[in-house]
Each structure stands twice: as structure tokens, then as C-alpha cells.
Amino acid sequence: MARTSPAPARRRVAVVGTGAIVAGGHLPALRAHADRAGLVAAVDVDADRLAAFRELAGADVAGYTSLDDMLDAERPDLVLIGTPPSLHREQTVAALKAGAWVLCEKPLCLSLAAYDDIAAAEEASGAYASVVFQHRYGSGAVHARDLIARGELGAPLVAHCQTTWHRDAAYYEVPWRGRWATEGGGPTMGHGIHQYDLLLHLLGPWEEVRAMAARLVHDTESEDVSTALVRFANGALATVVNSVLSPDEVSRVRVDCADATVELTHLYGHRNDDWVYTPAPHVAPGRAAAWRTPAADVPSSHTAQLGALLDAHDRGVRPPGSGTDARATLEFAAALYKAAFTGRPVRAGEIGPGDPYYAAMHGDHPDWAPKERV
After folding, report:
1. Are 11-134+317-324 and 136-278+326-359 equal in CATH topology?
2. Where is the GFO/IDH/MocA-like oxidoreductase domain (predicted)?
3. pLDDT tens digits for 19-43?
4. Is 5 exposed, middle or buried (0-12, 13-18, 19+ CB in 10 A)?
């Protein structure tokens, strides 16, 4: 008789930060995977916010105002981080050192140098840190990537990636927004990163970026709009727009392949019906029928990504959305900023130690680096 492996133990999970993204994204994801993961602790420096979250999450969730105290007392298997971006590197490294895996909101950190610090902590601990890029995990995205990778749509040729959102002055009254030291950048880092991460996920390695950025409306340290032209290793060319100046808000990724166009239009999340395939005139109807969306309709969500991470945890393998895969998206952001601020093309792999854009997205450029506050 074949021997069956025991079911993996239910993972002990802690959350760090108890604001809207944790309550509205991570908590529902944990409830959807309640048979595989249970929330045991929450951390927040704001005692009132922590109390409100514990009332929502359940009385058996322990509350802490110190991350270190929580890690020492609870020894969680997985830590979900939903704090402001400037805290991500330090909190991720602390969790890794305690032996916990991490799923952190984007951006995982504010520079390539900080990302490499996290990679070193992974290597030392044997644990892994993933960044939340939930748009990769919807069934429509999984299906599109598979079709492109297998050549079913023909060679990718031209692509467009659009994050055109709207943020008013009140949005930037939150002290950490719009500042390099606390947010890491403008819509290139904080908004459009989800869409161009999906574009990179669909098309693979990029080779060259040319870009522009500006402050057209908001009085911020970082940009409020950026645009880029991108050449991919497979020869495809793409445009990328990241804006918080757009009254008609939309998120869009379109890839024109030799045999079909695949286009996703949504705002903050997608389902199968948001993906449209348009065959080229020469494509036989029977072939195009195979491109229809899969029977299962899995929305892009924290729930879908958490499931993929738990699968990896069960197998003891590196989870998706981590390591060199996730670093490539942050490297793309750094390259876009360098290309925009220097006015010259930037190639993949050129930003390393000693390059000012390795240490900070503004690269100490005189027109963009933070000014001393009086």
C-alpha cells in the first residue's frame, strides 16, 4: 500500500500594520485559507487601531505594539506586512531573521541596495520574502501568460501598459506620501508598479528603458507622472504610463502578438471577463476558440497570492513573487527613474553598487533629490 504524506501543519500567521490594506486585503485572504493558516498576532504602534483590528479579527488574536516582542513571543511561520513603505526593509529583515516567511505590500523596499539586504537575510535564515503583486495570480493572467509563453498567440510585438489614476491634494497630506525617504517615489513606485509588474510577468526580461518624468500638478519631492519606452529581450517594444493626474481612471495592459491582441482593462483588480482576445484576420476560428478564458474564474487578489505562497511553504520551495523575479520589477523602476532623470537609455543590469540609483530611486539628482527641510 502506498504511503501517504501527512497534511502540512496549519501555519501560524502574524500581521504587521492593521490599516485598510491588512483589514481589507490580508484578513479576507486568511479567512479564505483558514484551513491552512491561522492569524495568531497583530502588531501596530497605534494602540487604538490595533484594538479595532483585533475586534474585527477575533479576540484570540494577540496584540503587540512591538514587532520584536511579537516575533519573540509568537514565533510565527508567516508574517504579512502592511505598513508604510519606509518600514518594509527593516521589518522584513527582522521577520526573516526570526525564521518567518514574509509577504509584504509593495514596494518590498525603496532601493535595489535595500533589496539586496533582504536577499542576504534570506540566504542567512533560509526563509523567503515575497512582495504583493496580486495581479499575477488571477486566472486570466495565468492563462494569458501561458498562451504567450507557449507561442499560441504568436511572437509578442507591441505592448502598452497604462496606470492612469487620480489623486488629489488631500491624498498627499498624509506625511509619508510623495517623499523619497518614506514612499520611495511617486506613481512609478506606488501605483503603476502593479501594472508594469504584470507586463514584465507576461513578456519576460526587459533589456532597455528610455523615460521621462515630471511634477505637473502636485507639490511633491517625487514625480506625479512618468512615461517609458521599453525594449524586451524577445524583441517586443512597449510603452508604460504611470499617472495620478487622470480624472478617467483606468488600468490597462495590452499585448499585440503576431496572431492576436490580448488586452486587460480594469481598475484595482481583474476577473476573466476583463481579458479580451482579438485574433488576427489570418487566424482560423477553431484556433481562436482555444484562447477563451479558463473555466475557473479566480479574481486577482491577496487571496490568490496567499494560496500560491502557502503552496510553496508546504513544499519548502521559494515562493513566486520573490528573489530575482521580484527584484527585476524593482530594477525596472530604478531604470525608469535613471533614464528619466539622466535623459539617456538604461540597460538591464547596469545599476549596481556605486551607481547612485542603486542606493536611492532619485539617484541624488540635483533636480530630484530631497532638499533639506528648514
Report:
1. no
2. 143-262
3. 999 999 999 999 999 999 999 999 9
4. exposed
Specify the fold of 11-134+317-324.
Rossmann fold (3.40.50)
* Cell numbers at 53, concatenated: 483590528
CA distance 136 to 326: 12
Domain boundaries, the chain: 11-134+317-324, 136-278+326-359
Q: Which pTM value belongs to this model?
A: 0.95
CATH topology of domain 136-278+326-359: Dihydrodipicolinate Reductase; domain 2 (3.30.360)
Q: What is the DSSP letter of 296?
A: S
Q: Is the pLDDT of residue 175 over 60?
A: yes
Per-position DSSP letters for 26-45, written without gaps between them: IHHHHHHTTTTEEEEEEE-S
Q: How far is CA 144 from the centre of its chain?
A: 18
C-beta of residue 73 within 8 angstroms of C-beta of residue 49:
no
